[in-house]
């Protein structure tokens, strides 16, 4: 092991020499000069002062460091947000949300904890967006309400952001800056560059933050598609150039690191669509991700070729299609190819294609409602061809399966991923990741965008490509990663975590409320209401027992009566002992009921005593 480490050190030295030759030279020169001076020190005191000054300069250079503070997106898929701090500049990359886990009952969305950014508000120069997916932009309205900083993004990304900000009444107060790939934004100490990538949404970019120590490259979500729908291939030349100039740290997408080979081109899906459209006799209904503009473009192309009209169903998809058409990301050869969902019955079935949300089986989505006969405009009929152009995100398999079953029962033909090539991923597989690592040749590497297993395997991939073992680091949110010219290390941590959004409340629902919700959802609640006379402490009315989600009271009258008797006895005892403290009375009621109910039902409902005084 030792030998190996030593070897690595040698390799590191060589790598840095190749990359930073001028810098290394300067350092050596400075060192040599210092040596010469050291000999002269006894003879000349004034020269010694100069020497000290030089030493300080060198020291300062050596001390120069960049901090990377991930506040989301590590050990989880979602709520991506990374802060890059150099001197007085903090660059924030992405600002995403996460959808709640099953145990986060009633929570709408989850956003990152940005306490650190609020504390360092003056340094935050802007939020720089890689692309328009919810897990990268979804937290913007909430974060911008806390820290109103400029937002930078490409045309489509900002188009989607605008719709979002409009919903939150923020459009007039936030400064949106539209950028193009290869644009460079200069800040006080660093500059930020955007580099084109491919992904399952148009206009995605990687971000390079140029610092005096080298570039920090964040790939964003990416894949390498040589035949993308919009013709905009990832800017591999620029990645290579930046790599040549010296990348001190790369953070790269780890989503598909477990998959060998390459992600297929989006164009292959278009070919599958053409085959399906050629054979379909009735309506075609295609479900996909609302934001997959390229996929929707391919639906439009197939529809044009086979003379069908396109109707869109599902609010999020309608919004994005509107923005994408307006900004030129979805183009049509035929005018009026899009029709309103209200108008589908004016055309024969074989002239209609419906693009819809619900590819994940989400219960409230348009496709689920169609499958359950709850959609107001579309009823599934025999002869319909439903194409589910997505793969279920882990955890959604059951939901998707239920929708597929319902569709088959209604007589529709259903085509899903297992049956045809109707979906490709938006993330790089192993070979594409290898290409990125090889082009960029980072000195240090930090995998992002993935659960722990993805991060771990991405590090192993980087090692295989020759990265020294101690040059890769798996981090967690809240870690402060400190990078100097020659080292990477964790140096403390900052507040981080998840903030729950429920309705209008941001952060007001915490773990205690969630625990109660869980308790209520599992065993229900039992409320005991008693009225006590203030002066004497004797019961004047009640106890009354109301229950929800515990037992059906009408069928459990005996149980409830017995419970009432027990409460009465408990109250009696309190009265005898002259206990007048409400808290004590309440806990006595709880104790006696908890034991009794568990014994009789093996259930533990939440018990809520309410005492009224007259
Ligand atoms: Zn994405
Ligand atoms: Zn993502």
List the helices and strands and how they pair.
Blueprint: H1 2-19, H2 21-40, H3 45-63, E1 66-72, E2 81-86, E3 89-93, E4 109-112, H4 115-119, E5 124-128, H5 134-137, H6 140-146, E6 151-153, H7 155-167, E7 176-178, E8 184-186, E9 191-196, E10 205-211, E11 214-218, H8 236-245, E12 247-253, H9 266-279, E13 284-287, H10 293-305, E14 309-313, H11 315-326, E15 338-339, E16 352-356, H12 366-371, E17 385-388, H13 397-409, E18 413-415, H14 430-440, E19 444-448, H15 452-464, E20 479-483, E21 488-493, E22 498-502, E23 505-506, H16 511-523, E24 525-532, E25 539-548, H17 557-576, H18 582-601, E26 606-613
Helix pairs in contact: 2-3, 7-11, 8-14, 9-10, 17-18
The structure holds zinc ion (2 copies).
What do you see in this structure?
By secondary structure, the protein is α/β, with parallel strands linked by helices. Helix content is 38%, strand content 22%. The protein is built from 18 helices and 26 strands. It has an eight-stranded mixed β-sheet with strand order 7-6-5-3-2-1-20-21. β20 and β21 form a beta hairpin. The longest helix has 20 residues, at 21-40. It is globular, with a radius of gyration of 31 Å. Residues 1-31 and 36-43 have low confidence and may be disordered. Bound molecules: zinc ion (2 copies). Residues 131, 133, 199, 221, 426 line the site of one zinc ion (ZN).
Which descriptors would you attach to this protein?
alpha/beta, single chain, 614 residues, metal-binding
């Amino acid at each position: 092991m030792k030998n190996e480490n030593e070897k690595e050190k040698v390799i590191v030295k060589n790598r840095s020499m190749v990359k930073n030759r001028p810098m290394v030279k300067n350092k050596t020169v400075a060192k040599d000069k210092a040596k010469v001076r050291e000999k002269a020190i006894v003879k000349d005191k004034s020269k010694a002062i100069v020497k000290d000054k030089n030493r300080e300069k060198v020291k300062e250079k050596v001390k120069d460091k960049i901090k990377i503070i991930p506040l989301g997106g590590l050990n989880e898929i979602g709520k991506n947000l990374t802060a890059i701090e150099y001197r007085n500049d903090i660059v924030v990359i992405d600002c995403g949300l996460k959808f709640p886990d099953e145990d986060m009952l009633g929570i709408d969305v989850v956003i990152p904890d940005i306490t650190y950014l609020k504390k360092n508000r003056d340094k935050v120069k802007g939020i720089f967006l890689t692309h328009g997916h919810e897990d990268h932009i979804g937290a913007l309205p909430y974060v911008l309400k806390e820290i109103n900083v400029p937002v930078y993004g490409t045309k489509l990304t900002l188009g989607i952001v605008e719709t979002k900000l409009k919903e939150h009444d923020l459009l007039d107060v936030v400064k949106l800056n539209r950028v193009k790939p290869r644009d460079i934004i200069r800040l006080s100490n660093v500059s930020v560059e955007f580099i084109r990538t491919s992904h399952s949404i148009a206009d995605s970019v990687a971000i390079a933050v140029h610092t005096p120590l080298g570039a920090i490259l964040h790939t964003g979500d990416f894949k390498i598609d040589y035949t993308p729908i919009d013709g905009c291939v990832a800017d591999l030349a620029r990645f290579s150039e930046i790599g040549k100039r010296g990348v001190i740290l790369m953070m790269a997408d780890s989503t598909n690191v477990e998959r060998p080979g390459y992600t297929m081109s989006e164009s292959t899906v278009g070919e599958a669509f053409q085959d399906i459209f050629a054979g379909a006799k009735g309506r075609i209904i295609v479900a996909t991700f609302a934001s997959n503009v390229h996929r929707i473009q391919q639906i439009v192309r197939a529809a044009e070729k086979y003379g069908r009209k396109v109707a869109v169903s599902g609010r999020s998809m309608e919004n994005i299609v509107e923005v994408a058409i307006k900004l030129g990301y979805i183009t049509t050869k035929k005018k009026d190819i899009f029709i309103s969902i209200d108008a589908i019955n004016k055309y024969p079935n074989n002239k209609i294609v419906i693009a819809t949300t619900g590819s994940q089986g989400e219960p409230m989505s348009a496709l689920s409602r169609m499958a359950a006969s709850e959609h107001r405009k579309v009823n599934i009929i025999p002869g319909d061809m439903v194409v589910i152009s997505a793969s279920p995100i882990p955890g959604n398999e059951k939901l998707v399966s239920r929708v597929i079953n319902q569709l088959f029962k209604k007589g529709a033909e259903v085509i899903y991923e297992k049956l045809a090539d109707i979906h490709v991923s938006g993330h790089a597989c192993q070979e594409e990741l290898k290409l990125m690592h090889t082009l960029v040749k980072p000195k240090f590497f930090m995998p992002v965008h993935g659960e722990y297993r993805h991060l771990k395997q991405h590090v192993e991939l980087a090692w295989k490509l020759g990265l020294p073992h101690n040059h890769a680091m798996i981090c967690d949110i809240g870690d402060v990663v400190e990078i100097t010219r020659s080292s990477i290390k964790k140096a403390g941590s900052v507040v981080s975590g998840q903030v729950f959004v429920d309705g209008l409340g941001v952060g007001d629902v915490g773990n205690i409320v969630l625990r109660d919700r869980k308790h209520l959802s599992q065993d229900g609640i039992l409320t005991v209401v008693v009225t006590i006379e203030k002066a004497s402490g004797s019961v004047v009315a009640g106890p009354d027992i109301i229950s929800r989600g515990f037992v059906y009271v009408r069928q459990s009258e005996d149980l409830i009566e017995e419970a009432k008797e027990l409460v009465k006895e408990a109250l009696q005892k309190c009265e005898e002992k002259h206990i007048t403290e409400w808290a004590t009375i309440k806990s006595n009621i709880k104790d006696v009921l908890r034991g009794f109910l568990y014994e009789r039902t093996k259930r533990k409902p939440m018990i809520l005593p309410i005492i009224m005084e007259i």
